[in-house]
Specification:
One of its GO terms (molecular function) is 4 iron, 4 sulfur cluster binding. The protein contains 17 helices and 21 strands. By secondary structure, it is α+β, with helices and mostly antiparallel strands. Bound molecules: adenosine monophosphate.
Amino acid sequence: MNFTRPHEECGVFGIYNHKEAANLTYLGLYALQHRGQESCGIVSSDGLHLHAHKRMGLVADVFGNPAVFKKLPGSAAIGHVRYSTAGASVEKNVQPIMVDYSRGSIAVAHNGNLVNAQILKAELEAYGSIFQTTMDTEIIIHLLAVARTNSLVDRIVEALNRIKGAYCLLFLTKSRMIAVRDPNGFRPLCLGKLGNAWVVASESCALDLIEATFVREIEPGEMVICTRDGGIKSLFPFKKVAPTPCIFEFVYFARPDSQIFGKNVYLIRKELGRQLAREYPVEADVVISVPDSGMPAAMGYAEEAGIPFELGLIRNHYVGRTFIEPAQSIRHFGVKIKLNPVKELLKGKRVVVIDDSIVRGTTSRKIVKMVRQAGATEVHMRISSPPTSYPCYYGIDTPNRKELISSSHTVEEVCRYITADSLGYLSSEGLVEAVGLSNEVCKACFSGAYPIAFPKPMDNNQRELFEEGDAHNE
Ligand code: AMP
């Protein structure tokens, strides 16, 4: 079986009952662009048929030509932005997936990753299913097609009862839009209202842009069905489990102006910085951040430590996130292309640099060098999360264990590698406390404790992620 590594970062947006459905979805995807920059797409419904436009590229490029919207008529639409690893960056994997099957047309957009995709795919293929993409999302479509129940809702429930993992899903048929969040609630999903239209989005920043009102978050395990009479129906058709929202959404992934899991991301990041200052204080003259993701934490750190915060590194905003660049060769240039120090500010200073995470260590190493070359006398690195030691299986793109520097190196060794004078990571307890959620969270990337285990046997691609021979998932 040739399944690509289960790595995807995505954002979903949907709107039901608005005459500008496709246009508003385009705007929603714009606001969610940070969740995936490789490809995007919109499927609309005019009540009779589904219409799709999807391509590789950024939202502005794929939907840059206004003529595109003439091909997306109707008062309902769903959209998707996606980033995946190099192997799967092909046109056929662009979402939403749209198919015609015996019951009509259906489109689906998915944020998250399934952990039992391999097993289900093998089973479906054994019964004659032919897969057109390498995305595990397609499995959901095949499960829908073979479901024995009658109504669409029942078929979706039947299909989803077979899958395990992280999913925020938007389904669109000619007459209905259905949103589902997995029982663990790994990824965020919220519900909004714009006049008589219902809106669903991965993050609330997408509602803000189209001036929709934030109604509430879609609950873990909830299915929200938008119906023709302008209402919604809410169901909880799955076995209840203790929710485990992803803490890394707060650390890095979500936009700071979003409200997710009941909290504002910016305020949480600032609190992470404050907590970091309490845990790892240092005598210094200036606090700077790695923009943009480290910014709120750096402000919190500076406030708590009583050290001035400055914009010591200036970012070129026309360059995408370095990590997102698929080719290793580009990634090496990445930091310089993206960031430049303000030398006059850093010269002769003891500098604290705040970033949200160290993954491979490449970025921090280059930044420390850059800050030193700008004339800093000391460079102290502070990270507003614990060491990232384990890969994510639930929708955040992390490399395999071997590439995660903290999976095989102590903090002292990482400090030496990045050539900093000192290095301090926020503790796991500090992170959880600062986030302050009353329920459990998924922090598997830091702890290796995976809320949903991989069914045995692990296939080669899954095993490859654990190259150090780890068995933390059971
Ligand atoms: P690295 O050079 O691999 O250590 O990357 C660390 C940088 O990547 C940090 O500045 C983070 O803000 C950023 N980062 C961490 N996780 C991710 C992710 N899943 N996708 C994109 N960027 C990330």
